[in-house]
Amino acid sequence: QVQLVESGGGLVQAGGSLRLSCAASGIIFSINAMGWYRQAPGKQRELVAAITSGGSTNYADSVKGRFTISRDNAKNTVYLQMNSLKPEDTAVYSCNADLVLSLSRRGDYWGQGTQVTVSS
After folding, report:
1. How many other C-beta atoms lie within 10 A of the C-beta of residue 102?
2. Segment 28-69, tens digit of pLDDT
3. What are the contacts of 55-64 at 24+ separation with CB within 8 A?
């Protein structure tokens, strides 16, 4: 069974840091783009950061210069290093991956989400 499992969320004070991890497991042929999304209460889900299989990245304007996305292709894992956290970063963070399961099977997968709470 293919799944994405996240870890690393929690409670941190403003100005602090957290590192999120998301590991893809199961029989996977390859992974294309991977990304992190977040959804705060009462708001729509938004893209935080994404990274291609080649390492190209893009970020939401609100996190540029503070967050860094990276991936370890050997471990099928994507990371999100979050520095200088602000209360407005509080949200449920979910990872997403475009997984190639075979030459004819490909799908968009989501993790279960991890809560990040930044106190002022």
Report:
1. 9
2. 999 999 999 999 999 999 999 999 999 999 999 999 999 999
3. 62/88, 63/89
